[in-house]
Amino acid sequence: MSDAAFEAFEPFVLGANEFLITSHVDPDGDAVGSSLGLRAALQDLGKTAEVVLESPLPEALAFLPGAETIRRPAEVTKQYGAAFLLDSSSADRAGQVLSRCLTPDARVAVIDHHWGNDGYGHVRLVNPEASATAELVYDLIELLRVPISPEIAECLYTGILSDTGGFRYANTSSRTLRVAARLVEHGARASRVAEALYATKTGPSLRILGLALASLEARSGGRIGAMTISLEMFEKAGAKPEDADGIVQYAKALAGARVGMLVQEVAKDEIRASLRSDGSVDVNQVASEFGGGGHRNAAGLRVRGGLGQVREDLIRALERAMNGASPSS
Ligand SMILES: [Mn+2]
User: How many other C-beta atoms are found inside a 10 Å radius of the C-beta of residue 66?
Assistant: First the structure.
C-alpha cells in the first residue's frame, strides 16, 4: 500500500468532527466488524461516528461491541458531510445510505479490498491483497496512532476471521495472521468470536440448513454442488434469508465440486445467489454477468426471476467459465 494513499486519510479524519460509516447490503462479519472498529477508533479520537447499514444486522454479529448503535437509513435524521464507505466495490453496494444520508457536497473515503473496485470516493485505501477490509482499517488506525482498545480489536478480528473463513481461505497470509495475533494481544477474544461466527446457530438457521442440505444436487458431472432454497422452504423452517448465510460452503464442500452454489428465493421473483470456487473458476466474473460481484473465489448476486430459471442460467454461465478456464474438463 502506497504511503500516498494513507497520507490523504489523516487530513480527511482530522478535517471533520462527525462521520457516517456504511458498508454493503447483506452485511457480513467484515462489513460490520470493520465499520464498528473504525467507529470506536474515531470516537477514541474525540469524533462522533454513526454506523448506518441498509440491511438488518445478522443476529450472529449482535455480540460485537457497539452493534446496538447501528442504524438503518430511515432512522437517520441528519445529513453528514463526511463518510466512510467500507468493504464495498461501488457506492450502490451500500443501498440508499449514501444518497439519503449525505449532504450534496459530502466527502467520502473508501476502504476496500475487492478486485474491481470502481474508483469511487475522494480518499481511497483499496488493496485487493488484504484479507479483509478490517485489515486495512487496522493499518489506518495504526497510522492515526489510536491505541487499539479491546473493543476495536474484537471488531477488527471478527472482520478478518469472517473474510478468511476462519483462516481457511487462500487470502490468509502470514501478514493476516500477524495482524490477527496483534488484535488478540490487544484484547480480541478469539474463542468468543469463533464461537459466535461458527458454533452458534439459531433454530431457524439450523432448520433451513437441513432443508438446504437435502436440496443438494451434483451438477455438471459433479463439478458444481448446487443447493436451492425456495420461499416455501424458508416458511417451513421459520427462517429469514439471513439465516441461510454461510450455507453455500456446504455446497462447495461436495467432494469433486469446483464451485458451490446456493440459490435462494428471498421474495416473490427475487433471487439471491452465492457462489464459492476452489480457485479454478473466477466466480466474481460469473456473478458480474448477472449484475453481482465479490471476489474470485466468493461472489454473490441478486436478480429478478424464477428460482429454477435463475439456477439453470447460473449453471450454464458457470459451465462456460469452467470450460474457458480449463479446456481439459
Ligand atoms: Mn471484506
Answer: 19
CA of 59 to the centre of ligand 1 (A): 18
What's the gap in Å between 175 CA and the centre of ligand 1? 16
For residue 61, the CA-to-ligand 1 centroid distance in Å is 15
CA of 21 to the centre of ligand 1 (A): 15
Q: Which residues in the chain belong to E strands, given as ranges? A: 18-22, 48-51, 80-86, 102-112, 123-126, 217-219, 224-229, 259-267, 270-277, 293-294, 298-304
- Bridge partners of 82, per DSSP, are 107
Distance of CA 221 to the CA centre of its chain: 30
Burial of residue 212, with CB atoms counted within 10 A of its CB: 0-12 exposed, 13-18 middle, 19 or more buried = buried
Amino acid at residue number 14: L
- d(CA 202, ligand 1 centre) in Å: 24
- CA of residue 270 to ligand 1 center, whole Å: 24
**CA 211 / ligand 1 centre spacing (Å):** 28
Give residue 3's pLDDT.
65
Q: Beta-carbon neighbour count of residue 162 at 10 Å?
A: 25
Q: Does domain 203-325 have CATH number 3.40.190.10?
A: no
Architecture of domain 3-198: Alpha-Beta Complex (3.90)
What is the predicted pLDDT for the residue at 59? 84
| C-alpha 250 to ligand 1 mean position (Å) | 20
Q: How far is the CA of 303 from the centre of ligand 1 (A)?
A: 22
Residues of the chain with CATH 3.90.1640.10: 3-198
Query: What global pTM score does this model have?
Result: 0.80
Average pLDDT, consecutive stretches of 10 residues, N- to C-terminus, the chain (329 residues): 75 97 95 98 98 93 97 96 97 95 97 91 95 97 96 98 92 96 98 92 94 98 98 97 90 97 96 95 96 91 96 97 64
pLDDT of residue 182: 98
What pLDDT score was predicted for residue 111? Answer: 98
What φ, ψ does residue 298 adopt, rounded to 5°? -155, 120
